[in-house]
Amino acid sequence: MASMEETIFQIILHGGNGKSCSMEAIAAAKRGDFTEARAKLQEAADALNEAHHVQTSLIQGEIRGEKVEISLLMVHAQDHLMNSITMKDLATEFVELYETIKLEKVSG
User: What is the rounded distance in angstroms from the CA atom of residue 100 to the CA atom of residue 83?
Assistant: First the structure.
């Protein structure tokens, strides 16, 4: 079984990967590469899903009575994950916005 620190770092790792993919999606959309942008959004979603699974396992353990020490590292991991989720949501909006602007330029 992984140590608590290893588990927390999994949340940070997957959250960071999700955030990076989200930023790459925005960059791809800005270049007009919407296929790449959508692929990066899917990678972001997959990474954030992995982080969420780790987070859920911690929550389920606590429900079973396993005590989870709240450390600064745990707070950082949760903050990192929530910011990554927000970034993915915003990246989705940016990709759609860039796509709409491009379509309007082409049809206008």
Answer: 26
Q: What is the pTM of this model?
A: 0.90
The whole-angstrom separation of Cα 17 and Cα 82 is: 13
Q: Which residues does the annotation mark as catalytic?
A: 76
**How far from 102 is each of 32, 36, 97, CA to CA, in Å?**
8, 15, 9
d(CA 49, CA 58): 14
Reported as a single tens digit per residue, the pLDDT across 46-80 is: 999 999 999 999 999 999 998 888 899 999 999 99
Tokens encoding 81: 């994950």
Under a CB-based contact definition with an 8 Å cutoff, are residues 19 and 84 in contact?
A: yes
Fill in the amino acid letter for 62: E
Query: How many residues would you count in the chain?
Result: 108
Residue type, 74: M
Cα–Cα dist 76/59, whole Å: 16
Q: How far is CA 73 from the centre of its chain?
A: 18
